[in-house]
Write a structure and sequence with these properties.
By secondary structure, the protein is α+β, with helices and mostly antiparallel strands. About 35% of the residues lie in helices and about 20% in strands. It is built from seven helices and eleven strands. It has helices at about 5-15, 30-45, 90-105, 130-135, 165-175, 210-225, 265-280, and strands at about 25, 50-55, 60-65, 70-75, 110-115, 130, 180-185, 190-195, 235, 245-250, 255-260. The strands form two sheets. It has a six-stranded antiparallel β-sheet. It has a five-stranded antiparallel β-sheet with strand order 8-7-11-10-9, with helices on both faces. Strand 2 and strand 3 (about 60-65) form a beta hairpin. Mean pLDDT is about 80; it is low at about 145-160.
Length: about 280
Amino acid sequence: MDTAILDLLEDIGRTSVARLNPAVTLTAETATARREQVLRTIRGTVLPRRLEFTAANGDCLAIEVNSSRVTDVFRVRSGLVPDFETEARENLAEKLAQLVSDIAAAPGPMELISLQPDIALEADDVGITFREISDACHSTELPAEPVVSIVPDHEEDDLTDTSDGLASQFYAGTERFAQGRVQINKSDGEAIQADGTCTPEQPMYADSDLLKQFAADLAGWDKDTSAELELPQLIVLRPSGGKGTALAVLHDGSQISAAVHEARKLGAVVSLWKTLTEADA
């Protein structure tokens, strides 16, 4: 046997890591690249499969694919599911291209799960070919980046000044995807507001001593990195493998906001950060 093949097999065995769940992460950073990944997945699916593409914000496209053809749609990001029984083939191709484009335009990273179909396919269930969908995608426009809407909380405590600063805007923006969040003063670590799993009696609650220590540690970090890094800063802590719970921290020099979120929703965090910093520029 060729020694190059042996070396390749050895490298695969040494670097392979067992997957903890059936989801595969598609790491493309732009909507255009994510759409190409979805199309490549459809083209590469030969045996009957149910493919579920899920964006970082929870939007999902679930389709049935066989021999590089889409034969059914089970779930869409928004709107009605196409009717394969009554709609014209050309209309179906255009609608499928729009559905693929919609899920690609949602925040990344995207996850893919490949499942067995619920029922056996009919012999005459030819579906819409990859080429038909791909050609229709060429006339479907895509945004370069997903649009994130930040809705301020108008019912906040009058004692908290959350009208200014990126930290307070970050706190408001993470409401869409955070499991828990907290905002504190950087100077003394005193809590301004908290929500979700970061409130008292909840699993991610941090008492005043821990918050003060965190603020002090972050102040030390600022002192050590002041020559290399500028404010504001976004710090992201993720578990090994990118699965489970993650922490996103933004501090703008006067306040700190931290959000506990699912690791797979990192794309939503980054999109929010880009929106805030571009608006502040």
